[in-house]
Each structure stands twice: as C-alpha cells, then as structure tokens.
Amino acid sequence: MRVCTVETVTTFASTSACPEDAMRSNRTDATIRAGGVSLIGGAVAFLVVFSFLAARFDYPTVLDGSAADVLPSLLATGAAGRAVWAVYGLLPLIWIPAGVGAFHALRAVREGSVRIAMLFAVVASISMMLGLLRWPSVHWKLAEAYIAGGPSEKAVIAALFSGLNSYLGNYLGEFVGELSFSVFFLLSALAMLAPGARFPRWMGYLGLVTAVAGLVGMFRNVADMVDPVAEVNNYLLPLWMIVFGIGLLRHGRVASLAASTNAAP
C-alpha cells in the first residue's frame, strides 16, 4: 500500500515524488549499476580466461581437433585447467544482470523491445553455459575414459565427443548463444538511439556495429567467407561490453544524482 500524506506531497511538490519513489529509484539505479559492473567484469574475466586457455590449450583452434588430439590435451591442463574451464563456463551468467540493468536503463524509451532484449540475454546465458560447461564435466570424464580405453572404446568415445561438440558446442553454445546476445545488443543499441535515452549516440552506433558483426560472424561454421567478420568481432565484443558497462554505470550515477536532487526539500 502506497503511503504519501498531503503534507509530503506539498513538501515534494516540485518533483511530484514521495520518499517511497526515491527509495524505489535508488534500488533501480543500483540494479542498473550492477548490470554495468557485470558487463565490465565479464569482459575482463573473458580476456583473462581466454588468454590462459589459448596458451595452455591452443584455444579456440583446438575446437576443430579430433578426440585423439583434444582429449589428452584437455587432461594435460590439470586441475588448474579444469578450474579455469569451470569459471569460463559460469561467465555467461553475467548476461542476466546485464540484461536486467539494460532493461531498467532503457525501458522509459523502448520498454517492449528492451524487455525482449532482457529475455534474449537470459537465453544467451543458459545456452552458452551449456556449451562451455561440457569441457570441465562431460568432456573431462570422456578424456579420462579415452586415455584408459582400448581401440574400440576410443572409437565410441570419439563419436560421442564429436556429437557433443556439434550439439552443445556449435548449435547451442555458439549459434544460439551468439544469436541471443547479439539480439540483446541490437535491441539495446537501438533503444540507446531513441530520443530521451540519455546515452551518447556514438555508443548506440558502436552497439549496432557489434551486434551486426556478431549476427554475421555466428555463421563462421557454415560459411568461411564470414571468418574475417568473426575475427573482428572477437575484438569488438569485449570492447563493446566495457563501453556498454560504463554507459550503464554512468546512467545509474546520473539517475541517482537526479533522484537525490529532486528528493531534497
């Protein structure tokens, strides 16, 4: 039940805001800032983990290898490698607070589209986790069985390894995951360009370029011609995540200052 006395309304007449409104605004602003922190932290963590796996596991080139090459190499990374894969597999969770934060920051200008964007962020999180977490779990066990198995067992394991890579890796993790976060970026960037969004226009255009590059680059497994676009997107993605995160932090800070100023007697 909303409580706001006549005296309170008179006191806050210049802003038409009650104390409850200010508290609600502060909570919303904190949610927006949490989304920004998630994007920035996720981008930095992605770069650190990616660098480790590239050095220790020849990632992502190794993804095209056979079970005979990949599974022993996976085990060779040891407990540290398995832990890094587990962290990598959990990183897509950042899309959830990012999607919620973007929704609250942009709902005033494009509520319907950013609500859809938020849902795509959740789909991206789930699908990418399913793809990445196969490495420290299912693939790790397959690697142990492969090392200990005979020729017939290795043939079965190799077929299972290939099938899991196709389904969990190519289709869910890469295609559905990248499609989902690219749509999240696209809808968010379009909302940034709407009047009254309180985001710099160049930021919206950078988001559009990143989203389009992601939508094109996700077809790299079926069309070699888009490989250059996918390579460019590997650099654009962390850059855009950091810029997007800074934009959300800035939006939350400005909104908080405005709310504090408006709430003052």
Describe this structure in words.
It is a single chain. By secondary structure, the chain is mainly alpha-helical. Residues 5-17 and 259-264 have low confidence and may be disordered. The longest helix is centred in the middle third of the chain and has 42 residues, at 151-192. The chain has one domain (18-247). The chain is built from nine helices and no strands.
Short account of what is shown:
With 265 residues, the chain is mainly alpha-helical.
State the main characteristics.
265 residues, mainly alpha, 9 helices, 0% strand, disordered C terminus
- pLDDT under 50 segments (min length 5)? 5-17, 259-264
Shape: elongated
Instruction: Give the termini distance in whole angstroms.
Output: 24 Å
Tally of DSSP helical segments: 9
Structural class category: mainly alpha
What is the CA-based Rg, rounded? Answer: 23 Å
Order of helix and strand elements from N to C terminus: HHHHHHHHH
Strand content: under 5%
Averaged pLDDT, please? 87
Query: How many structurally independent domains?
Result: 1
Share of helical residues: over 70%
Biggest sheet architecture:
none
